[in-house]
């Protein structure tokens, strides 16, 4: 059993810069309202596909995909959804160059939720959208493409099973038609958060359970065949809560899981790595954390067998992005954090082609929305940029050549738009997402907004063009 030093280190030291320094950045995405980052994929051109969710002031949540270039600037973005709630949790590239997305969607006629499966082409255009479930709530948390070009979705079901909610697996063909579904669990709570393929063509399912194990919640690991038949199940933990959200097969054909633990001499709720052999037998647990709470949501293994996790820490105040690298045996190497006085949570991480890492999640500190998607790109030793920029236009040129000044503003805010752009409306929102003014410029290019009668605080200036909406945060002072 391994216990790591309970140390949180913020690596913002100039000597740690490598040749990948020019690719180190922080970018936020999203507009007014709530925006949430879930997953990130790197493309062959070193750009990124970002999966998120977004909602405005009215209506419900939509699935949101952003395609960026290698520096995080938007190439295109797409939203998917209608009057119902559509929430995405996982995205994977498919063999045909497109993407498969899972999550859940509201079914208004039944007043419940079904598993959502969305297939797009390489440009993010919808090929098909399907839902699956019973008369109660059913959620998809992870998806993987299978050797026959179909898909396996892992999640949870309240419609079927033995208890409150059970692990639920769904197998479809390449067109999303259901081939089989199975549930696993006992009389209490059993949830699958991740499905991953192994070298032998079988699959591991990672989550947690309080139907089995030693007490509280225990980490839950299943290995199944491509037909959904159980090869074995394992639990890891002790009498207090132990939860896992991500699991992968390692290069030695063992398995690592990550999540949180309140056992193994944890100081509070600490981040944890569980290592098992190829048969799921427990080998060791590595505990990582400070005096308050930590939790990891994703884990990857590098080519040198080292491990990298992403999640959050509360040991420096509010929840902050927390990114930790260990060696193959779980011994701590570094652990940068990023955040402020509000909530910032990392949900997913990937290795990048230049040897660094890309981490996606949600921030309440940066960007124009109440919460925003945050993409952090580090170099190979975890160096973080300390500056942030937010992107809300459809391409990186859409916010050039216009000016909003002064910022902070005390009375008149001046807005100048270049001649080639025609501005239709300017809407001002306060930070409660309430409209405080709406202006239609006479010539479409230049206007002033009188802030003298507004209370002090943060406002969003929303510039409405025919082809897009661009938001700018301003601070009003007296």
Can you give keywords for this protein?
2 domains, single chain, 478 residues, Neuraminidase, disordered N terminus, 0% helix, five-stranded antiparallel β-sheet, Immunoglobulin-like, globular, 53% strand, five-stranded mixed β-sheet, mainly beta
- State Rg: 23 Å
Strand content: over 45%
| Second rung of CATH, namely the architecture of the largest domain | 6 Propeller
What is the CATH C level class of the largest domain, in words?
Mainly Beta
Query: How many distinct domains?
Result: 2
Characterize the largest beta sheet: strand count, sense, and whether it forms a barrel.
5 strands, mixed
Main sheet: strand order: 27-28-29-1-30
- Reported by name, the CATH topology of the largest domain is Neuraminidase
Helix content: under 10%
Number of helices: 0
Overall morphology: globular
Quaternary state reads single chain
Provide the CATH superfamily of the largest domain: TolB, C-terminal domain
| N/C terminus separation | 59 Å
Return the average pLDDT rounded to an integer. 87
Taking pLDDT < 50 over at least 5 consecutive residues as the criterion, the unreliable ranges are: 1-22, 392-400
Query: What is the structural class?
Result: mainly beta
Concise synopsis of the structure shown:
This protein is mainly beta. The chain has strands at 25-29, 34-42, 48-55, 62-68, 74-80, 86-93, 99-107, 112-120, 126-132, 138-145, 151-157, 166-172, 178-184, 190-197, 203-209, 218-224, 230-236, 242-249, 255-261, 270-276, 282-288, 294-301, 307-313, 320-326, 332-334, 337-338, 344-351, 357-363, 372-378, 389-391, 403-405, 412-416, 423-430, 435-439, 446-450, 457-465, 469-476.
């Amino acid at each position: 059993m391994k216990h790591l030093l309970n140390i949180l280190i913020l690596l913002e030291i100039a000597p740690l810069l490598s040749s990948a320094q020019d690719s180190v950045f922080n970018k936020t995405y999203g507009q007014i309202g709530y925006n949430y980052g879930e997953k990130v994929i790197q493309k062959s051109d070193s750009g990124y596909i970002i999966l998120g969710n977004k909602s405005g002031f009215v209506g419900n949540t939509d699935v949101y995909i952003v395609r960026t270039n290698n520096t995080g600037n938007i190439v295109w973005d797409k939203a998917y959804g209608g009057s119902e709630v559509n929430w995405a949790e996982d995205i994977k590239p498919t063999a045909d160059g497109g993407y498969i997305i899972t999550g859940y969607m509201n079914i208004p006629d039944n007043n419940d939720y079904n598993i959502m499966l969305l297939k797009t082409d390489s440009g993010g255009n919808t090929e098909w959208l399907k839902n699956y479930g019973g008369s109660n709530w059913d959620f998809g948390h992870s998806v993987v493409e299978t050797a026959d070009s179909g898909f396996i979705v892992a999640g949870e079901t309240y419609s079927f099973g033995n208890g409150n909610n059970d692990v639920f697996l769904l197998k479809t063909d390449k067109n999303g038609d259901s081939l089989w579904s199975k549930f696993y669990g006992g009389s209490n709570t059993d949830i699958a958060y991740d499905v991953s393929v192994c070298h032998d063509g079988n699959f591991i399912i990672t989550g947690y359970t309080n139907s089995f194990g030693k007490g509280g919640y225990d980490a839950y690991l299943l290995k199944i065949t491509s037909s959904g038949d159980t090869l074995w199940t394992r639990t890891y933990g002790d009498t207090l809560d132990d939860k896992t959200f991500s699991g992968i097969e390692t290069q030695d054909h063992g398995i690592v899981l990550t999540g949180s633990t309140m056992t193994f001499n944890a100081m509070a709720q600490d981040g944890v790595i569980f290592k098992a052999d190829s048969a799921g037998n427990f080998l060791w647990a590595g505990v990582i954390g400070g005096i308050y709470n930590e939790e990891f949501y994703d884990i990857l293994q590098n080519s040198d067998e080292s491990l990298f996790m992403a999640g959050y820490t509360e040991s420096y105040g509010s929840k902050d992005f927390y990114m930790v690298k260990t060696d193959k045996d779980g011994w701590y190497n570094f652990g940068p954090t990023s955040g402020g006085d509000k909530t910032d949570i990392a949900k997913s991480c990937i290795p990048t082609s230049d040897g660094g890492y890309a981490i996606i999640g949600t921030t309440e500190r940066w960007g124009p929305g109440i919460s925003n998607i945050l993409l952090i790109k580090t170099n190979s030793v975890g160096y973080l940029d300390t500056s942030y920029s937010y992107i809300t236009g459809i391409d990186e040129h859409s916010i050039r050549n216009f000016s909003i000044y002064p910022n902070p503003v005390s009375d008149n805010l001046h807005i100048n738009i270049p001649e080639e752009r025609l501005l239709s409306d300017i809407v001002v929102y306060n930070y409660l997402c309430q409209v405080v003014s709406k202006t239609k410029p006479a010539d479409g290019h230049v206007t002033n907004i009188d802030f003298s009668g507004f209370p002090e605080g943060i406002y969003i200036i929303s510039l409405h063009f025919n082809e897009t909406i661009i938001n700018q945060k301003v601070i009003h002072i007296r």
